[in-house]
Amino acid sequence: MEKDWYVIHTYSGYENKVKANLERRVASMGMEDKIFRIMVPMEEELEVKDGKKKLVKKKVFPGYVLVEMILTDDSWYVVRNTPGVTGFVGSGSKPIPLLDHEVRMILGRDLSGVPELPRVNFSVGQEVLVREGPFEGFSGKIEEIYPDRGKVRLTVSMFGRDTPLELDFTQVSELE
């Protein structure tokens, strides 16, 4: 038999509790040879609140937990009857395993350990508006983009002279 990754539905907000319950059940029922890993995919996101930047962990798929297992009647029963589990993802009563490329995408995202920076659609030469900081309200032209640092270098015109600034992605927005 081959082990595959399956997705189980849970009550939203109970993903971590279901993971803990399932891990306890696997140990107490001796299913370590059929149920291997249980994951709640998380990603770190940069959040700006009240002008302060903070990394927060967010669930990638709220209401779902991933389980790596060999699907047998016994392993299905253990997972399906864990408190908080509402069912497997699949058609009818037969769970459908994730495809290899789906597993690679999910595990690659979750296990990279690199916080995800805010998504931006900026380009060099683009005019942007400064949203916060001492230059709030000024518009400027992007000179360089540093995606690994989450920053842009732009020039704003101040007193008739171009002034270079380096700002976080979160401090600028596209002109509307």
UniProtKB/TrEMBL annotation:
Domain of life (superkingdom): Bacteria
Looking at the record, the residues that make up the KOW domain are 121-148
- Keyword DNA-binding part of the UniProt annotation: no
Q: Transmembrane segments in this chain: where?
A: none
Cellular component (GO) terms are: cytosol
Q: Which UniProt keywords apply?
A: Transcription, Transcription antitermination, Transcription regulation, Transcription termination
Role according to the record: Participates in transcription elongation, termination and antitermination.
Mind telling me what this protein is named? Transcription termination/antitermination protein NusG
What is the organism of origin for this protein?
Answer: Sulfobacillus acidophilus (strain ATCC 700253 / DSM 10332 / NAL)
